[in-house]
Specification:
- The chain is α+β, with helices and mostly antiparallel strands.
- It folds into three domains: 83 residues, no CATH class; 69 residues, no CATH class; 117 residues, Lyase, Ornithine Decarboxylase, Chain A, domain 1 (Beta Barrel), CATH 2.40.37.20.
- Helices cover 21% and strands 25% of the residues.
- It contains six helices and 15 strands.
- Strands 10-11-12-9-8-13 form a six-stranded antiparallel β-sheet.
- The longest helix is centred in the middle third of the chain and has 25 residues.
- The radius of gyration is 25 Å and the shape is elongated.
- The two termini are 34 Å apart.
């Protein structure tokens, strides 16, 4: 039996380094070992010896954690090669997108990402791996890739609803943001401040520093949710174009759509202020 220890970074994370991936290592090891292979990740240095004994006993064996089969450590048989056939690569190279600002920089980021991924795919193809599907993309660069850029598939998530981060990056306008949280004004403690019933449990915590705030009121330009606690949002209305009244319903655009959606069971789809449908958020709370 052959033991193979493989360390693989995620393809596309650092395009200036040689392209590697754990799956590529497993396939290569099986092709060259002509026998079973035990694959171990580099961040698993303290595996118990009895685990290796169980893996060596074979035939194919893997570790199950929380009802999920882990790829490392595991014993792979040559018979598994047909199931491990590589047909392409997938990357999420957000570092080409999120630091950019405005349409021109975002278009440049899309081109940089596509070139980097295409170079990695070409190297894998030269090594004998099939590269018919090359997947990449992100929301800021969605719609900015050109034909022949090297990608065959664009994956982007937030672009279908957008959020305030995307507005501040320059990938959309405030009018193109479809997602909002319906909140109620519950207090007006001062002339410069209003309190709404949406805080971290309704809007989510800000992620990163892309946008300066926790919520924006599209129907009340100038109003900013500048502070939040668990249950409430503190709205700075000192620059608001109109007053807010206690009991008034207001739409609040969150800074980050993905983490905001994860707080709710359903989305109410509206058109012209009328609810057209209710969509269940099936992934709510499912972080694994």
């Amino acid at each position: 039996m052959n033991d193979s220890v493989m360390a693989g970074m995620m393809t596309g994370s650092h395009p200036w380094r040689p392209p590697t991936h754990p799956l590529v290592g497993i396939v290569t090891a099986l092709e060259r070992a002509h026998g079973p292979v035990v694959a171990v990740a580099c961040d698993q240095p303290f595996l118990p010896p009895e685990l290796f004994a169980q893996l060596a006993a074979g035939p194919a064996a893997a570790v199950r954690v929380n009802d999920a089969i882990e790829p490392f450590p595991a014993r792979y048989e040559p018979a598994a090669l047909p199931a491990l056939r590589i047909v392409g690569m997938m990357s999420y190279a957000s570092h080409f997108a999120y630091p950019k600002r405005g349409p021109e920089e975002l278009a440049e980021g899309a081109a940089q990402e596509a070139r980097a991924i295409a170079e990695i795919a070409a190297t894998l193809a030269e090594a004998g791996h099939e590269m018919t599907r090359i997947s990449g993309g992100s929301t800021p660069t969605a719609g900015r890739y050109r034909a022949g850029c090297g990608l065959t598939e664009i994956r982007a998530g937030t672009y279908c609803i957008n959020d305030r981060n995307q507005v501040d990056i320059g990938s959309c306008t405030m009018e193109q943001v479809a997602l909002s949280v319906l909140a109620t004004v519950v207090a007006r403690p001062t002339a410069e401040r209003a309190i709404i019933d949406a805080g971290t449990k309704g809007l989510d915590q800000q992620v990163g520093t892309t946008s300066a705030g926790y919520g924006w009121l599209p129907e009340v330009p100038g109003a900013l949710v500048g502070k939040i606690n668990d249950e409430h949002g503190f709205v700075d209305v000192s620059a608001a174009e109109r007053e807010l009244s206690i009991g008034e319903k207001v739409r609040v655009v969150p800074p980050r759509a993905p983490t905001c959606l994860n707080l709710y069971d359903t989305i109410h789809a509206t058109r012209g202020g009328v609810v057209q449908d209710v969509w269940r958020i099936t992934a709510r709370g499912r972080n694994t």
